[in-house]
Design brief:
single chain; 252 residues; mainly alpha; three-stranded antiparallel sheet; 9 helices; 5 strands; flat
Length: 252
């Protein structure tokens, strides 16, 4: 079986699944109309909303996942989880499309090339955003196990190399001229201030709710707020950090 046959089979399988989802959505919509006549439309509408969320999650492709991760990464003050599987899938698709261009007419080839370039730009921007964050707080990220797990192997090696080069540069430039007790790069002052910089987790961010969260306590001094799908909030990053990691909200 060649590559084209394999892609045809995968496409046929996806179309069958999409047809099943469309049929389920139609049945849910018909049930909504019936129950609204009995005064129960509100409950059914919630069911339809849940069905739409499930459909969107199923239909979300690697490009959509990377685009959301890219926006989140650009707006979050700290380093987020690396989308390694998504990157690998997209690069395999890019390689396949690049080979396919050679056998296509000029017009079709140009259209495919535009799509390929768009994916390449997104991948590069995503990786550059992460590297910029790593360089800004390299020493902190290489010492925190949580952030070390969030980095790819290449990113972790880059971060360690960056810390080593930065330390060598500072020692050669001025640290070696200071008394030994003043040459440390990770000391803590008497007021508790540490020389190792960390991301500001209390920075203000805008977030959009992706799935119904329910009542959520933004601040201990305030009443819980109902977070419904597509609601937009401005708050401190640290408050919605766990929701972002769980995929319940996205940064904008």
């Amino acid at each position: 079986m060649n590559t084209d046959d394999l892609y045809s089979e995968n496409l046929g399988s996806q179309l069958n699944q999409l047809g099943s989802i469309a049929s389920d959505s139609l049945d849910a919509a018909m049930d909504t109309d019936t129950l609204e006549m009995d005064g129960q439309g509100a409950d059914v509408q919630d069911t339809v909303d849940d069905q739409e969320e499930d459909d969107e999650e199923f239909l979300e492709d690697d490009l959509s996942i990377l685009m959301r991760a890219w926006v989140n990464e650009r707006n979050a003050p700290d380093l987020l989880e690396y989308e390694g599987t998504t990157i690998e899938n997209l690069m395999e698709l890019v390689d396949f499309q690049t080979q396919k261009i050679k056998s296509q007419p000029p017009m079709i080839a140009n259209i495919i090339k535009v799509d390929v370039d768009r994916v390449k730009y997104l991948v590069r921007s995503y990786l550059r955003t992460r590297l910029a964050k790593i360089e800004q707080h390299a020493m902190h990220y290489t010492r925190d196990d949580m952030y070390k797990e969030r980095m790819s192997q290449n990113e972790l090696e880059y971060a360690k190399g960056f810390v080593s080069l930065e330390e060598k540069h500072m020692r050669r430039s001025f640290l070696d001229q200071l008394p030994p007790h003043l040459r440390g790069l990770d000391e803590t002052a008497g007021n508790g201030m540490n020389m190792v910089t960390k991301p500001n987790l209390d920075a203000a961010v805008f977030c959009r709710v992706r799935t119904n969260v329910g009542e959520f306590q933004f601040d201990t001094s305030e009443d819980p707020i109902l977070m419904k799908r597509n609601n937009i909030f401005i708050t401190r990053y640290n408050i919605i950090r766990n929701l972002l990691e769980d995929g319940k909200v996205e940064l904008i």
